[in-house]
């Protein structure tokens, strides 16, 4: 087993579930120079396995088919759906050693559940990334159990920062809130494009024109926010002429009773509560 600091690019990684999230992380690690042979994937999808194998990643259809590396796995990344936990995790428990760092990106599933299903590993980190990870523009919120050491957190941060920014929280109970804001958040933004497209059609634009305008506006506004040192509030105010068209729209969107803030609060609370339900 390598030291935690070496394992940013060295060390042996086991990934259970290489779909959208697991796959994006693997691509990020390889892009950052990790040897694909240091990654082992368990995934039942034959197509997915063939794609990864062609990239040099070691693959197995199930835990029984995994060849344990000398010294064991340094990190186990759990990236299966919460609904697949019971089937996927217990068979992998023998692959988890006393020094293996378990990093789970699954929504809802608690440290306690991970420990119960994986033979009670000591070092567990819950991480919540999002799909912009696929282009290296994700953000991941992380919680580490007190049993982890500085080197474990540094190792997790190295792995997760391969696909974007990393923020740490000190309370596991807040991971569901992170999920509700940034984990699920990209879907809210894509839905904003859909809603602006529909609204454009309702005021007379052809569908494709409305879609092009809406999409380029969201992408352009996000890029401007990214490039600018100004706050979102300042950027919003820069669009808003006194008594102009934007002010008319914002009087609807910013209504405290029926505007976007109370609607977004309901949506984020619903996501947070669903995360809590998935824990069970
Ligand atoms: N998508 C997102 O935006 C985010 C997802 N997450 C979390 O990431 C996790 C994975 O989500 P996502 O990547 O979207 O899901 P995907 O369905 O894309 O990926 C899950 C992968 O796990 C595989 N799988 C199913 N059963 C098993 C098993 N028994 N052993 C090993 N692998 C298995 C699936 O194969 P098959 O398709 O053949 O079933 C699939 O390839 C979830 O827990 C989710 O909460 C976290 C942040 C954001
Ligand atoms: O929808 C979900 O449950 C997962 C977690 C965050 C994004 N997708």
UniProtKB/TrEMBL annotation:
Positions with a binding annotation for NADP(+): 16-21, 79-82
Keyword Amino-acid biosynthesis appears in the UniProt entry: yes
GO biological process: L-proline biosynthetic process
Domain Pyrroline-5-carboxylate reductase dimerisation: residue ranges: 172-278
Chief subcellular location: cytoplasm
GO cellular component: cytoplasm
Domain of life: Bacteria
Keywords, sorted A to Z: Amino-acid biosynthesis, Cytoplasm, NADP, Oxidoreductase, Proline biosynthesis
Pfam families attached to this UniProt entry: F420_oxidored (PF03807), P5CR_dimer (PF14748)
EC number: 1.5.1.2
Domain Pyrroline-5-carboxylate reductase catalytic N-terminal: 15-108
SUPFAM superfamilies: 6-phosphogluconate dehydrogenase C-terminal domain-like, NAD(P)-binding Rossmann-fold domains
Subcellular compartments: Cytoplasm
One function term, GO molecular function aspect: pyrroline-5-carboxylate reductase activity
Catalytic activity entry: L-proline + NADP(+) = (S)-1-pyrroline-5-carboxylate + NADPH + 2 H(+); L-proline + NAD(+) = (S)-1-pyrroline-5-carboxylate + NADH + 2 H(+)
Pathway terms, separated by semicolons: Amino-acid biosynthesis; L-proline biosynthesis; L-proline from L-glutamate 5-semialdehyde: step 1/1
NCBIfam families in UniProt: proC
PANTHER family assigned: PYRROLINE-5-CARBOXYLATE REDUCTASE, PYRROLINE-5-CARBOXYLATE REDUCTASE 3
HAMAP family named among the record's database cross-references: P5C_reductase
Role of this protein: Catalyzes the reduction of 1-pyrroline-5-carboxylate (PCA) to L-proline.
Family to which this protein belongs: Belongs to the pyrroline-5-carboxylate reductase family.
Name of the protein described by the UniProt record: Pyrroline-5-carboxylate reductase
Species for this entry: Tistrella mobilis (strain KA081020-065)
């Amino acid at each position: 087993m390598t030291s935690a600091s070496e394992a940013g690019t060295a060390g042996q990684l086991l990934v259970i579930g290489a779909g959208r999230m697991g796959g994006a992380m693997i691509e990020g690690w390889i892009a950052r120079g990790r040897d694909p042979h240091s990654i082992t994937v368990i995934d039942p999808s034959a197509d997915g396995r063939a794609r990864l194998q062609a990239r040099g990643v070691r693959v197995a259809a199930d835990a029984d088919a995994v060849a344990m590396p000398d010294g064991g796995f340094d990190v186990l990344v759990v990236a299966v759906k919460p609904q697949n936990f019971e089937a996927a995790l217990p068979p992998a428990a023998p692959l988890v050693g006393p020094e293996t760092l378990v990093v789970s990106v699954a929504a809802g599933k608690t440290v306690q559940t991970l420990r119960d299903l994986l033979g009670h590993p000591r070092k567990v980190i819950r991480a919540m990334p999002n799909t912009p990870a696929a282009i290296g523009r994700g953000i991941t919120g992380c919680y580490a159990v007190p049993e982890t050491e500085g080197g474990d957190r540094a190792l997790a941060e190295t792995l997760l920062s391969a696909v974007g920014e990393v923020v740490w929280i000190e309370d596991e109970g807040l991971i569901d809130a992170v999920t509700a804001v940034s984990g699920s958040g990209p879907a809210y933004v894509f839905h904003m494009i859909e809603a602006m497209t529909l609204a454009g059609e309702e005021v007379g634009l052809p569908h494709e024109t409305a879609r092009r305008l809406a999409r380029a506006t969201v992408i352009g506004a996000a890029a401007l926010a990214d490039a600018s040192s100004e706050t979102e509030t300042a950027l919003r105010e820069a669009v808003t002429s006194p008594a102009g068209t934007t002010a008319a729209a914002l009087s609807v969107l910013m209504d405290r009773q029926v505007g976007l803030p109370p609607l977004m609060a309901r949506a984020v609370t619903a996501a947070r509560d669903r995360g809590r339900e998935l824990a069970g």
